[in-house]
């Protein structure tokens, strides 16, 4: 899995992370994705306890603590593998990061934060930003500020509900994605379905980032 | 594999421990004390460390360094606010603080190295073997420069520092080993100079740190300072004296403040006493625990905000915490315990001695590294976000705080101008938005072949190792060549300087050894003189008068030798006295046996 030949004894590699002949640890290939590294299929629903168990198991295999008596090469590999494992675990543990990572693997990066508000929220958000500016400029103890603050609070509730809706839709898409993958069809219809799910996920994820940033901004301003 | 010891290099006290048949054990010194005060004094006979150095705090304050840990990895500007509290002269060279002790200057790692050497010697004496490898603990909230400075101290002391481990997590190892706990625990560590909070999940031998937070400038020292300030103020009012002008008395005030605070953990009321200079008599002040608590409440409250932040970062509420563990001498204060208990809603654990638990944990980690303990594994985190300065002086985060270490991240760099041959990179650590508000770790320049703007592609890998220390690698993606980078630390010693300090430490080692021998001989001689005088008082009537005279002569000879500078002469006189006083010793022993046996039944004697 790691690569085809052991760096140390040059024998053919059959084992996953350790050479079966000389028992040396092997560097995790840079091309290996986090799902494969952790031994999970590319699905969006992952049992956190199973993931944690695997993380602990691989930590015991790779952690530098256990390579103190080994050669410099093995220590370097242990360090690199541990760092990779920690990133993999952190990414897969969080459902949103997991989905963003999967999109990245399947269809290229999604991470760019939108610079314009999502179309269906356009008006609402522009107005909210005006209110925010007004509130920032207002005297905190004035009656006007109190009115603005109340308005912002209600906006916050709306946006947070919006966030929850987005997360619910995402959850549905995750389920659809997993079901599609489980069927493993190679038809045109399946391919179209795949593209539809990915595109829909991408839209929601980028809108979600936008809304999340606005909410953070809002919370920071009124608290 | 050679033995690895665990060292707690504390602000106030330091300890060394090792794994003794599956259980960690602190090594006591010749004076049977487990703790070495983290104090280094420059005397006319050379440098001394620990308990004897502590005596110089009031005798020679300008040349006695304490709380050196507060200066590790710092520049002079970082400590400006508290300079007035310290009696020694500080300067700065190459971004690193230096202590001026007599003619020479010493960096904080050099001073710390002296404490480490003392601990090393202690371990070597006890174990009867040479010790060259150690695990050293640091506050979890220490930044990269402070960790690197600690590692440098180890190297200068002749120790290979196999691991820098966080104090609260070390403590959790000691507790975990003892109690085989499972679940979520909070470790609240309030030491002499630093505060840490760490939240961990313990499961099947894995100690996973979920979040950590703290304040590297908050500890027992600060409590003492508040009490000392109160005393100073009242001395000014009552006696019209400003002790600021008397550095030796300032130290006496600080030490009495510390003792008063310690006593108030056990009693509700105590009296502090200080001798005043210039025949102004004595200052006495009664202090109640209530008064101490209202004085220090603000500081204790300051520890609670990091606790809440750590909980938030771990995505937990106090209700999720199964156990709370207290570490550090300052957690003996009843109000600290009370506030921690209120915050977490749990009675905190303090079964293990809070002064020793960190050293014990370091010994456990040392045992893990040497392959002894294999069922436990610590997965720690980096306490602060790591980032780089981007256009407009903003910090762009590369590795977020509370990321499990080892942690790596890659960033791609390119050029903005045609033919540009270098890209400057400024590495930062901290949580603030603007680069200038964060800690500058290092600056370096990536070399780039002259090409049109945007064409070069340099991949920089940031790797935080298991010590929490940053390593940087750069690779030219077009050429596929790796580039080794000279990273100039913003607040640290360069490799050359460390090299020089190692050399210096060897050069002065011979001096140090003879100075140490003299000090030890004097201490032993002093103890022997006291004991013999006491024996003479108690047993003169038991022996012949010429025996008494011979003993007195030998005693006088030892007193003279003790004031000299030759340790061998002292040892010889000690042997002489031992021989001369032999009949006295035997007579006293017989006498006490006879007395002890009187009035006892035969069955009790056999």
Characterize the structure shown.
The complex is a heterodimer of chains A (223) and B (606). Chain A is an all-alpha fold and 223 residues long. The model of chain A has no long low-confidence stretch (mean pLDDT 84). Chain A has 7 helices and no strands. In chain B, 39% of the residues lie in helices and 27% in strands. In chain B, strands 1, 2, 3, 4, 11 and 12 form a 6-stranded mixed β-sheet that branches. In chain B, strands 18-13-14-15-19 form a 5-stranded mixed β-sheet, with helices on both faces. A 5-stranded antiparallel β-sheet of chain B has the order 22-21-25-26-30, with no helix packed on it. Chain B starts with a strand and ends with a helix. The interface between A and B is medium-sized, with 19 and 26 residues.
Q: Which protein chains make the most extensive interface, counting residues with beta carbons within 8 Å of the other chain's beta carbons?
A: A-B, 19 and 26 residues
Q: Provide the CATH topology of the largest domain in chain B.
A: Nucleotidyltransferase, domain 5
Supply the CATH architecture of the largest domain in chain B: 2-Layer Sandwich
Helix and strand content put the structural class of chain A at mainly alpha
Q: What is the makeup of the main sheet of chain B?
A: 6 strands, mixed
In this structure, how is the largest beta sheet of chain A organized?
none
User: How many domain regions of chain A?
Assistant: 2
């Amino acid at each position: 899995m790691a690569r085809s030949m052991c760096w140390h004894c040059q024998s053919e590699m059959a084992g996953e992370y350790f050479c079966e002949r000389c028992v040396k640890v092997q560097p995790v290939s840079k091309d290996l994705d986090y799902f494969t590294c952790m031994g999970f299929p590319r699905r969006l629903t992952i049992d956190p306890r199973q993931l944690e168990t695997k993380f602990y198991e691989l930590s015991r295999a790779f952690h530098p603590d256990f390579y103190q008596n080994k050669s410099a090469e093995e220590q370097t590999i242990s360090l690199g593998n541990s760092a990779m494992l920690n990133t993999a675990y952190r990414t897969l543990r969080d459902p949103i990061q997991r989905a963003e990572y999967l999109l990245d693997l399947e269809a290229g990066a999604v991470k760019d934060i939108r610079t314009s508000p999502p179309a269906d929220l356009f008006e609402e958000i522009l107005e909210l930003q005006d209110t925010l500016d007004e509130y920032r400029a207002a005297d905190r103890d004035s009656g006007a500020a109190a009115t603005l603050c109340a308005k912002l609070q209600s906006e916050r509730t709306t946006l947070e509900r919006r966030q929850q809706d987005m997360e619910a839709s995402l959850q549905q898409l995750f389920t659809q994605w997993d079901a599609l993958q489980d069927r493993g069809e190679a038809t045109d219809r399946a391919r179209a379905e795949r593209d539809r799910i990915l595109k829909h996920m991408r839209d929601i994820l980028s809108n979600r980032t936008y809304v999340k940033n606005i909410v953070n901004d809002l919370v920071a301003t009124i608290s | 594999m050679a033995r690895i010891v665990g060292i707690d290099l504390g602000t106030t006290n330091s300890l060394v421990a090792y794994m003794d048949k599956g259980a960690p054990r602190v090594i006591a010194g010749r004076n049977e004390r487990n703790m070495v005060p983290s104090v280094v004094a420059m005397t006319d006979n050379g440098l001394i460390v620990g308990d004897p150095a502590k005596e110089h705090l009031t005798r020679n304050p300008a040349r006695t360094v304490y709380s050196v840990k507060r200066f590790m990895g710092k520049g002079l500007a970082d400590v400006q606010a508290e300079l007035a509290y310290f009696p020694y002269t500080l300067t700065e060279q190459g971004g690193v603080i230096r202590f001026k002790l007599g003619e020479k200057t010493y960096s904080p790692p050099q001073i710390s190295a002296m404490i480490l050497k003392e601990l090393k010697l202690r371990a070597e004496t006890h174990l009867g073997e040479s010790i060259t490898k150690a695990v050293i603990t640091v506050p979890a909230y220490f930044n990269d420069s402070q960790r690197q400075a600690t590692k440098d101290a180890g190297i200068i002391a002749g120790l290979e520092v196999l691991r820098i481990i966080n104090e609260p997590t070390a403590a959790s190892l000691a507790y975990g080993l003892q109690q085989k706990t499972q679940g979520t625990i909070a470790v609240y560590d309030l030491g002499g100079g630093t505060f840490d909070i760490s939240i961990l999940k313990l499961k099947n031998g894995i100690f996973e740190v979920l979040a950590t937070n703290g304040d590297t400038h908050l500890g027992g020292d600060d409590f003492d300072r508040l009490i000392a300030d109160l005393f100073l103020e009242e001395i000014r009012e009552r006696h019209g004296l400003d002790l600021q002008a008397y550095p030796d008395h300032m130290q006496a005030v600080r030490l009495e403040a510390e003792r008063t605070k310690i006593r108030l953990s056990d009693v509700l009321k105590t009296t502090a006493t200080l001798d005043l200079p210039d025949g102004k008599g004595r200052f006495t002040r009664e202090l109640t625990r209530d008064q101490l608590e209202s004085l220090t409440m603000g500081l204790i409250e300051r520890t609670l905000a990091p606790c809440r932040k750590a909980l938030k970062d771990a995505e937990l509420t106090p209700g999720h915490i199964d156990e709370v563990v207290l570490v550090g001498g300052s957690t003996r204060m009843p109000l600290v315990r009370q506030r921690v208990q209120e915050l977490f809603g749990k009675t905190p654990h303090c079964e293990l001695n809070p002064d020793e638990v960190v050293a014990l944990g370091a010994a456990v980690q040392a045992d893990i590294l040497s392959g002894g303990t294999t069922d436990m594994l610590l997965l720690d985190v980096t306490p602060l976000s790591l980032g780089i300065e981007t256009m407009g002086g903003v910090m762009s985060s590369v590795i977020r705080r509370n990321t499990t270490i080892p942690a790596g991240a890659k960033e791609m760099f390119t050029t903005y101008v045609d033919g540009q041959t270098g890209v400057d990179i400024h590495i930062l650590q901290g949580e603030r938005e603007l680069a200038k508000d964060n800690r500058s770790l290092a600056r370096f320049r990536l070399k780039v072949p002259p090409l049109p703007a945007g064409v070069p592609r340099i991949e920089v890998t940031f790797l935080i190792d298991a010590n929490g220390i940053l390593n940087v690698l750069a690779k030219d993606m077009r050429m596929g060549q790796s580039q080794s980078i000279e990273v100039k630390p913003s607040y640290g010693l360069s490799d050359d300087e460390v090299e020089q300090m190692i050399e210096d430490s060897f050069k002065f080692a011979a001096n140090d050894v003879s100075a140490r021998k003299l000090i030890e001989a004097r201490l032993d001689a002093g103890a022997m003189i006291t004991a013999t005088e006491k024996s003479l008082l108690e047993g003169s009537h038991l022996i012949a008068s010429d025996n008494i005279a011979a003993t007195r002569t030998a005693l006088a000879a030892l007193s003279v030798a003790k004031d000299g500078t030759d340790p061998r002469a002292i040892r010889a006189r000690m042997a002489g006295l031992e021989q001369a006083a032999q009949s006295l010793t035997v007579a006293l022993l017989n006498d006490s046996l006879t007395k002890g046996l009187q009035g006892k039944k035969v069955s009790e004697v056999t």
